Amino acid sequence: MNSRNLCRALRAALLAGTGPMLIVAMPAAAQDEVPAAQDDSDAIVVSGIRETIQSSIEAKRRETAIVDTLAADDIGDIPAISVGQAIQTITGATTHREKGDASEIALRGLGPFLSNSTFNGRDATNGSGDRSVNFNQFPSELVNQIKIYKTQQANLVEGGVAGTIEIGTLRPLDYGRTRIQGELKAQYNPYGDRIVGGSGGVGWRGTVSYVDQFANDTIGISIGFQRNDTNNPEETYAASTTWTACRADVTVINNNCTELSRDNYGDGIPYYLVPNSYIFRQISETDQRDAVFGAIQWRPSDRFNINLDLQYSDRTFVENRRDLTISEARRSLTNVEFDENGIVSHLEGSSSLESNGSTLTRSEEYLGGGLSVEWTASDRLTLTADASYSRTIRSETERNFRLRTDRMDVNGVRTEIDNQRIPYIYDIAPGSFIPTITIDPRFDLNNHDLFWDDARFRRDESRRYNKIVAGRFDAKYELDGFLSALSAGVRVAQLKFSDYDVRNGDFNENPAIEEDRRINNICRQAFPQTDYLSDAPGNSIDSWATFDVDCLFREYLGTEDPGLPDDLRSVSNRDVTERTYAGYLMADYDSEIGSMPVRGNFGVRVVKTDVTSKGLRSDLILVDNGDGTFHLDETGDYETETIKASTTRILPSVNAIFEVAPNTLLRVAGYRAMSRPNPSALGAGRTITLEDGGSFTSIENAIDNVRANGSPRLKPLMSWNADAALEWYPNKDTMLAATVYYKQFTGGFQPVVYDETFTIDGQQVTVPVTQTRNSPDKSRVYGLELTAATRFSSLPKPLDGLGAKVSYNYADANFENEDIRLGDIYDPETETVSPGLIAPAGLSGYSKHVLSAQAYYEIGPVSLQAIYNYRSNYYQDFVGGNSQLRFVAPSETFDFRASLALMKGVSLRFEALNIFNEPKTTYMPVYGSSRQYHYYGSKYFVGIRARI
């Protein structure tokens, strides 16, 4: 049985076991319930996973809105290796995986951009250009509460269409006890053993924290440190991000296929979809993160509560990439077999082959915190002021080289094929993730002599700067009667997002062949791993000739790093300022209908947003590549284009809770919600996509690759929402909840084309530039959310230590996102539609099915937990938008955690992630058309924790 089938079998076993057990055990648990005065369970001290689930159930029951939480009374007790891993165990939450770990979060099957993420109640920045929190930046060991608001209430001020994710750290006086804690974990990734000259897949993370109170418990401090030093190797097959519809009725030899023009989309001409290139990539990586979390809480009197908190994280990883590139995937295509959707199953072509290598270094620094002052002005009036700061700087530097094939090898000897371009065959079986690409057997991929021509070197650097400065003031006045409290508040915030992406190159080096031969020989490198893509069915390429990046740069350019260019300006740079002014008024109520208690709140928020976006414009020049092709470059003479936009939105909300029985709650909610476009999607710049490395054979081909890198006039996505939930709490360990919800959207997204004038080589040329605008169309989402949790206390000992939690979310949406090249395009002047060739995608991040199942067992010093997560396929847009459609295949992961208490305060801990090596696969631009396969393997952690 292979790992995929084994995983499915265990999933079935887990669900088959926990599902009926939950159904059987819940009535028994209810029968065991006794009045609170006689409930001797209060005398039992629980800890570990059971305590976390108990705390989460109690927190959910207390909340006014529909909320799910993961709460731990003690620091470091969130049961996960990362915040993202922890969140995906919460009902309706699922994650997108990068480098084998959970990163961005989708709620109720809806994408990250529809959610609002906060840290200690404040908006937080990240380096991705979107509005989600980079959960990999924050150690789970220094977080003690994660709360997800599924419905909105006015004092959340902004919130999100899908919900609000709130990450919280402890306040030392509220914590109320002294704690010194240290934890050391060793990491092992079996895949790392296949890396030649690497660390053997071994890494570590260490955490230490201290919490204490002084001056008669009027001052409290907490501080925590973490160092994470790991490695995350990866192997992948990928196609480029630009796909073309090629005419199947025209065969072109010694050139690119003939693209099906938009004018012929409805004429029934057969077509097939191909990318610009195919890439096999091997990645060796080191990853280091340092984090510091701290807080000082001062309570000088019963009326004042002052809290200052700070978070700092600095993460750096270095990737060494080795690529085999089929760089001309549209050239000389014959014997093409494809289906009715244009998905290719077989083709034959010829292309230059390239051995490419790069070293990529990314550094991301987060600094955030705030000062909160709470004043109880009277027994009824509480005033709170909060000032916050959040800043993320992400810098990325990549040095890369290209060495191409030629009809001669580096020794001047003609090759057997006697052509620069090498024949290959592309095959992919139905249901496979990765194609079989067979290179002409006369060509030896591992022969370094064959990769030497057209040496090119680039040095790319990008920097993203994201800062939020905000202030908030709230007042709450408690009342008697039906209205129990009135709250009001204002918030002012300024977000700044800017970036640049500059290149120092291209450096095209064509010295005498003797020099090429010398450098080729001294810079050769053994293939960096064994068993490349051995877990990918159908793969036929397991190694190729690779070279040392530093050596090639040093020998060809005389320096390993040519540094930044003198001028960092570019038409692709973004400079966005967003100012937000918001206010709210909310009333809490508490009453009875007959003998049934009812409580809740209602209120309204008003949010005004002003956006100022600046972009650069430059004339363009054609640069001759010396081989009959050319590429576009900027002249360096820039003008600034400033675009302003403003919106005001009114967001009413109402929440009601009916206690229909002593342990049963009925919740209903109605509200209007908004989700802002990502800051990077508001850029006013232009991107010149350099196809095939920037080699164009016609000016029409070149200008077709000028695109907007943002749409500053995009407005928030708005929705009207209704939720209803029924929740049953028979005891502290048990909960059964069902929620139905409905969302109606207005203002989806449509690609539109605007004609812009560019001056190219002194001549004015009209260029159709595609952007995105808000659509007047309406769409909807409806869904069902189920949660069941219990401990099987009615079972005989020692089985009474068993417990389980299962959550499932189903969502159905008809939202549409069009492909920017091959989908419907709208003319903003005539409002006419140019029909597309391929079907639209849904909401970014939308999965129809999301499932999380947990089973745990705690007895004495032993604690065991198994977690299964499943997510159906979804569309994932590229950060910044204005890109073609990308789909992520269904994913399922199985994790395991265990701990053993060795003595009081000391425990041995073990964690295993992605036990069955589930890869990540993506399709483009239609589902089923293979684009990328990621494999990163499983990870194991073993450690010891001590606390006093």
TrEMBL record:
- Cite the entry's keywords alphabetically: Cell outer membrane, Membrane, Receptor, Signal, TonB box
Q: Where is the TonB-dependent receptor plug domain?
A: 60-163
Domain of life the protein comes from: Bacteria
Q: Its family?
A: Belongs to the TonB-dependent receptor family.
Q: What is its main location?
A: membrane
Under InterPro entries, the record lists: Beta-barrel_TonB (IPR000531), Beta-barrel_TonB_sf (IPR036942), Plug_dom (IPR012910), Plug_dom_sf (IPR037066), TonB_rcpt_bac (IPR010104)
Q: Indicate the segments forming the TonB-dependent receptor-like beta-barrel domain, all copies.
A: 426-915
Per its record, how is this protein called by name?
TonB-dependent receptor
Instruction: Tell me the first and last residues of the signal peptide.
Output: 1-30
Where does the protein end up? Cell outer membrane
| CC per GO annotation | cell outer membrane
Task: Note one Pfam family from the annotation.
Answer: Plug
